[in-house]
Structure formats: C-alpha cells, structure tokens
Design a protein that fits this description.
With 253 residues, this protein is an alpha+beta fold. It has a single domain, classed as Alpha-Beta Complex (Creatine Amidinohydrolase), CATH 3.90.230.10. The protein contains four helices and 15 strands. The longest helix is centred in the N-terminal third of the chain and has 24 residues. It is globular. The chain starts with 7 loop residues before the first helix and ends in an 8-residue tail after the last strand.
Length: 253
Amino acid sequence: MGVVLKTEGEIELMHEANAIVHAVLDGIDERIAPGVTTYELDEWAESYIREQGAVPAFLNYRGFPATLCTSINDVIVHGIPGKHQLESGDIVGVDCGVRYKGYYGDSARTFAVGEVKPEAEQLMRITRQALELAVERVRPGARLSDIGHAVQEHVEAEGFSVVREFVGHGIGTSLHEDPQVPNYGAAGKGPRLKSGMVLAIEPMVNAGSRGVKVDADGWTARTEDGSLSAHFEYSVAVTKDGPRVLGASTLGL
C-alpha cells in the first residue's frame, strides 16, 4: 500500500498508544523474577492493556495465541507465553503491541532474570546500543538503509550476529505497514526518510551465528546453534527535528 505519512495529530495518538506499551514493559520489569511464569506476565499485561482502554495487538493476530511475545534465552522472537517457571540466569525478550484509538504501538525489551552471565549482559547491552544508534539515523533526508547499517556495524564489531529473517516495519493504523526496516545492509541505499514516517526499529541479535530455526508451533523462532538472542524495539517518528521515540520520555531504555 506504500508508505503512509502521519500528521502531527496522528503521531500524538501513536505516542499515547506507545506510552501504554512502555508502561506494560515497565510493569514486566517490576514483575519478572525467578519462579514467575511468562503466562502470568501475559495475563497481567492483557488485563492492564484493557484497563487503559486499549486492545492487545498481538492476541489472535494471524493466529498468535497471546498478548505478549516472550522469547527466552535462545528464542529470538515470537515465543509463546507458557507455564514454565523462569530461572535465575535466563534472559527474556518481551515484545508488546497495542491498538489504541485506531493506532498501534509496538516496542520490545530484553530482561535479565536474577543474575545472568557476563556474555548475556554484554549481548543485551550491545543490542540496546544498536537500537539507540539506529534511532540516531532517523531524520528527514537520510536513507532507509542507514538504520540497518548502524545496527549491523555496531553488532558485528562486537562479535555478535544480526538476524536477517525478521525486520522492523512501518506502523500506524496497521501493525505492519511499509516500509520494511532491515537490521543490516550498506548505508546510503533505499528511499529517503520523510517527516511523518513512523518506523518500528527492532534489532534482533544472536550471540552466535545468525541462523534461525522455527519450532513446530510455527511461531517460536530460535537461534540455529542454540546461542542466546536479544531483542529491543522502539516505534520512532521521523520529524523535522529528528527522531521522536514514541511513548518514551527519553532515548534510554
């Protein structure tokens, strides 16, 4: 359908939707702990989202059975919440989306459960930094590929791998809009960014190789070599003044 530019009013509505998403992720941060199940986190998130007058975006989307994607350790994305208890040392990528007043919000963070190994801490830090570097490239006149190049350059310099099978995307009145936003590639390629574009930028980074395999459930995507994976995401508006991270008061996660 092509890229849909948003008005300032629409971006404000998307900021409100994303504020709900960030509040959910803040709540997950407070609740995640050894012994907790991702099913419990999912139940709380759905209840909270509905209390805000919003609707979970992922629930029943293309058949996905939950409000949150909860991706533990070697799971890259699209992990389905379940009743297995989290253990100290786990890392959990939590992706959340909502629809509010006709507009979508979408964001993700990876959380440490208890004490995690230095490699896991480094993986999460580098992935978060890659997102921040990508956001800095979001300004009118920049090229779309500048975003993915910033991610790939930072991640690979640290000895980690960028997942290529899953990419970011435009977002607005639909959860997934044009354009796709890869996390890799050469700078200076693709369409120029314009004020009014809103992009969900979401690096997915593996500690080992970039290979991906999908479980029999058709959703759960894992690292092919069993290594850890991390995922961070923002919805970002292109404005004349540069990037605006929607739903967040600061760039820091």
